[in-house]
Amino acid sequence: MFKFFKRVKTVVGSEMNAMLDKAEDPVKMLEQFMRDMAEDIREVEEAVAKQIANEKMLKRKSDDAQAMVEKRQSQAEQAIESGNEDLARRALEDKGEHESQAALLKESWERAKLDSDTLRTKLDEMKKEYQQMTLQKDSLKARAESAKTRTKMNRTMSSIGSDDSKQGFERMEEKVMQFEAEAETSEDLSKASRTLDDEFEELENKNGIDDELAALKKKMGKQ
């Protein structure tokens, strides 16, 4: 039942860091430590409960034996007062047997009580250790999560400024410039492909607008 304390010393001591270094996931390993500790505590609680029950049983038997001793003593005195020495003698003989039983039972009860007190003290120590480990686990868990986040951010930032990222960005810029050049070229080709009739039609349209504008100004007296 005291394997718990060996485990606590391992976890709390310098060996814990070595274990966590080897673990793929320190947080999961810490959780497993806590589950093992909780299981050990439950086992010790059961042992303590059984020991206390045994102590109470021995105490009850010891008290019963002592009560019988006092009863036989009282009965012997009563028999003497009644003049019945034979009855008094038999009461005293039975009293002696109960005294021996009471002495043995008392010794057994005192030993059981000492064991119960020791186990209760150990159990209290285990629970305090568990509480301390819970606080330490929460702190280590937070540190582990923070370290993971920082590592992820650093990797992301380093990838942003890497040569691959710059080259990818430059390729996209070149692609956009190529699209722009193609658009300008298509516009030039469109202009070059205009026929003579297209130009005269454009001129007639322009003259038509000019005539319409002059007529409107004349009508409104704005000439």
UniProtKB/TrEMBL annotation:
Residues 65-84, 133-211 are annotated as: Disordered. Transmembrane segments: none annotated. Keywords: Coiled coil. InterPro entries: PspA_VIPP1. Residues 65-74, 138-148, 163-177, 188-209 have a biased composition (Basic and acidic residues). Residues 27-61 form a coiled coil. Belongs to the PspA/Vipp/IM30 family. This is PspA/IM30 family protein.
